[in-house]
Amino acid sequence: MSLGNVWSFPSRVMSYETTLGAMKTLAGRIAGITAAYREPGHPIDINTALEPEYLKAAAAVSSELRLASPIPKLCTLVTASPFDAALHDAFGKAHGASAY
User: Fold this and answer.
1) 3-state class (DSSP) for residue 39
2) I want to staple 8 with a disulfide (CB 3.0 to 4.6 A). Which of 63, 75, 84, 92 is the partner?
3) CA dihedral of residues 69, 70, 75, 76 (deg, nearest 10)
4) Residue-wise pLDDT tens digits, 56-84
5) What is the DSSP string of 58-74?
6) 1 or 99: which carries more pLDDT confidence?
7) What are phi and psi of 16, to 5 degrees?
8) How far is it, in rounded angstroms, from Cα 6 to Cα 11?
9) What's the first-to-final CA gap in the chain, in angstroms?
10) For the whole prediction, is pTM greater than 0.85?
11) How many CB atoms within 10 Å of residue 1?
């Protein structure tokens, strides 16, 4: 899934490039958070455990980039969605089952 900032992070005061850049920065943080997670579990349980950390990362990115508006929760979840899909795919492959 692409980084859908037009619909997940609409802004009348920030440019498309600004909100997209924030999502890209957040994606890097989410990648690190997800890679550092070591607990076994179902992808839904893992994402439930990681979501608070993703939201903290979004708040930190918003502050560090001095955004006019903070990254919305929807945008954070959209940014995390490729990682969620990858976890589901890996889980399915590990168990010889379809992730769909």
Assistant:
1) coil
2) 75
3) 170
4) 999 999 999 999 999 999 999 999 999 99
5) HHHHHHHTT-SSPPPHH
6) 99
7) -55, -45
8) 8
9) 15
10) yes
11) 9
What is d(CA 78, CA 93) in angstroms, rounded to the nearest whole number? 23
Hunting for tokens 């006019």 — which residue is that? 68
Amino acid present at 76? T
DSSP state of 13: S
In whole angstroms, give the CA distance from residue 47 to residue 91.
13
Q: Whose structure tokens read 């979840």?
A: 77
CA–CA distance, 81 with 83 (Å, rounded to integer): 5
